[in-house]
Amino acid sequence: MLTTRLEFVIPGVPMAWARARTNGATHFTAAPQRAYKRATALLAKRAMAGRELFTGPVAIALTAVFEPPASWTKKARAAALAGEAVPVVKPDWDNLGKIVSDAMNGVVYKDDAQIFDAHVGKRYGEMARVEVAVIGRAA
Questions:
Q1: Could you tell me which residue, 4 or 14, shows the higher pLDDT?
Q2: Which residues make Cβ contacts (< 8 Å) with residue 38, sequence separation at least 6?
Q3: pTM surpassing 0.85?
């Protein structure tokens, strides 16, 4: 077995997994979260390029990149883009990781229970996106 690395980018504003909602009788996941999860799975499948699923333990690293708010001054935006400020607002880091790791089930690895180490970071950048890296063993 070889240790291998998979990397891909999810373009657009990072989305967090939201708690299931209810309409009184039925629990459901909101349409935006379902769409984001499907798009993430498709991007992961493309990145896998026909490779076998990762076997054994995997480590993941996610970086959620947010654009600085348009209302910020040029000085504040420049400082954020230089890494002098980081996003400390919602969405929470764990929900950012959950939607991406769940989307990779059956696409990159059999189940996200294989994840033994995870890093989720948030930062500012020119274009919103989520950068994904998975390290594990391929068959």
A1: 14
A2: 103
A3: yes
